[in-house]
Amino acid sequence: MANITNTPESAGSNLMARALREAFYAGLVALGLFVLFVGLKTDQNILNELVLVQRWGLLAVFVAIAAVGRFLSVAFIRPYLAERKASKASAGVKEPGFVTRNFSMIAVAILLVYPPIMVAIFGFQGSLKWVDNFGIQILIYVMLAWGLNIVVGLAGLLDLGYVAFYAVGAYSYALLSSYFGLSFWVLLPMAGIFAALWGMILGFPVLRLKGDYLAIVTLAFGEIIRLVLINWTAVTKGTFGISGIAKASVFGIWSFDVSSPNNFAKVFGLPMSSAYYKIFLFYLILALCLLTAFVTIRLRRMPIGRAWEALREDEIACRSLGINTVTTKLTAFATGAMFGGFAGSFFAVRQGFVSPESFVFLESAIILAIVVLGGMGSLIGIAVAATLMIGGTELLREMEFLKHIFGPDFTPELYRMLIFGLAMIIVMVWKPRGFVGSREPTAFLRERKSVSGSFTKEGHG
Amino acid sequence: MEYFVQQLVNGLTLGSIYGLIAIGYTMVYGIIGMVNFAHGDIFMLGGFAALIVYLVLVGLFGGIPIALALFIMILVAMLMTGLWNWVIEKMAYRPLRGSFRLAPLITAIGMSIALSNFIQVTQGPRNKPIPPLVSSVYNVFGISISLKQIIIVVVTAVLLTIFWYIVNHTPLGRAQRATEQDRKMAALLGIDVDKTISITFIMGAALAAVAGTMYLMYYGVIVFTDGFTPGVKAFTAAVLGGIGSLPGAVLGGLMIGLIESLWSAYFTIDYKDVATFSILAIVLIFKPSGILGRPEVEKV
Question: B2-286 in CATH: which number?
């Protein structure tokens, strides 16, 4: 474009020359980056001393991948993307199809029939993995992310210590059920209330803080809760955690304990299997998720929800209009924390075991990443992000066939978090506003106009 | 009294390491307003680079003098992490510049996860112990000061002086401060903003690498998760001092180091991090923009 006299051929050869040059530099940089960390490996010998193992072949592979990747990117992928962008800009806007319009309804319907389908395909034992590791695991993160979404997505308060409330919920259930023998259905609301209380306790000191100051104090709060759980061994049993947590029952009518007389399988005369409990838990967490979504959707239409969103967009304007920012922030923290507490007590019931290991900062980071990757404030986007990120990393556990390609020493699980981290970066660079990026105003005059992304600033706390 | 002074010395050493890392946080925050969460892992990377260089040196020349070895370790680690941070900034943060606030934070968290797991995958998950590099201990008025503590404090002081000079008295420093104040205006006045930001990342990484080498020398062991706790402490230090302020970062680092060692000495070691974080929260309640931070004036 810049040089009109260029014929297409010379432009092509220029491009190739540039691609080759950039590939060379990329290889050089990759060599510099990886020479110490990939080329050499520190290993312990029999005397327990560190020795170096040389892996120049692997280093060569890394460098080659970087160079070839750069070459392909400059020579082919970028021109293709530029072309596609140009053609896309000229095309008109498409009407959303049936699936897009009714996405949430279809998703809920699929989730409702998910366990029976899995049982039909894999049998009771085989379905355990799919219902438990995928279904329940993903839904827990969906619920946590929806809970955090109230704080970060709606109220715009950056919370890096959300896992603290999850921990409070889990430990409330674990401790109260093992010390006082209370049932799940009594403790579920109590766990929520406790977590909400802790949300208020965190909320008070941070009312004046903004942005990154808020972020670091919430992070510190999460760490404090975890450290107390580790060190207060008299109550929490420290790093050993609390095991043998009682199972939940179907509203006290049917139990899932094998020894109890009203055991679910016995009452209905079914063969014994642990799958019933998992399927019950699946529907339980699904119900909790739907409750979270319902409350969020309803709250957004209430004055408090409107106040949250106003707070996110502009705190000064919000205060000028007479909105009490203190109660607004506190309710956001408390409501978000309450759902974290619900999820926590569900987590304790599902694992039967809680330890401080489960409530590290990484969990907060994952939940926050899901909220942001999903497009803050969008419930569907967040659910999609949770499914992709958590389901994707769970899938890596199943990649046994990779062992046949890379040899028996290859353990895909080792690469799980590495790939998760890289995926976070790639998705963010690719779609900075998340999967569902366009936010629509909830309050509008006469007609709904979409808000241009550049007009709104989000997450400034 | 001697016990108290002894703890002060220990706290000062620890605080120097935190201060060196905190400068990286505070500079990057000052210049592009983003919390570089991966900075703690850059520090860990620096420690690992120093470890591997040390092993290479010992393998090639058995009886290399320790002073020379340390010098080469620091130098290579600085170059190495500088290169890493340069590439990271270019690939992961630059495309998101001008995007909304949380986007770079999320990539930084992703980068932090990726870096620590990269080291776990390539170097193995176990602790990496090395024999003590420097072991002499001096006794001054009943207080034992080890040579490594002296090295740490002296190296930190020298680096901070160099650094302070660069930021305040060189064209590069002027470009950095200009970019920090108003990026668009700086660009209009002919400052290469991208280059300045890159250099800031490289400088922060180099200081983190020095901190990593010092950490390796002081504790004699490093593991792939070591980036997190010192990283969070250094971030805490930067915020405590007032994020964006260079003297604040050093002051915050020293404060955190002192709080930690005094608390462990007089109360219980179990709750030292709880104490650190609680003091952070209390300070921020009364001074919401840190000790030396300027209160933000909001223009409407």
Answer: 1.10.3470
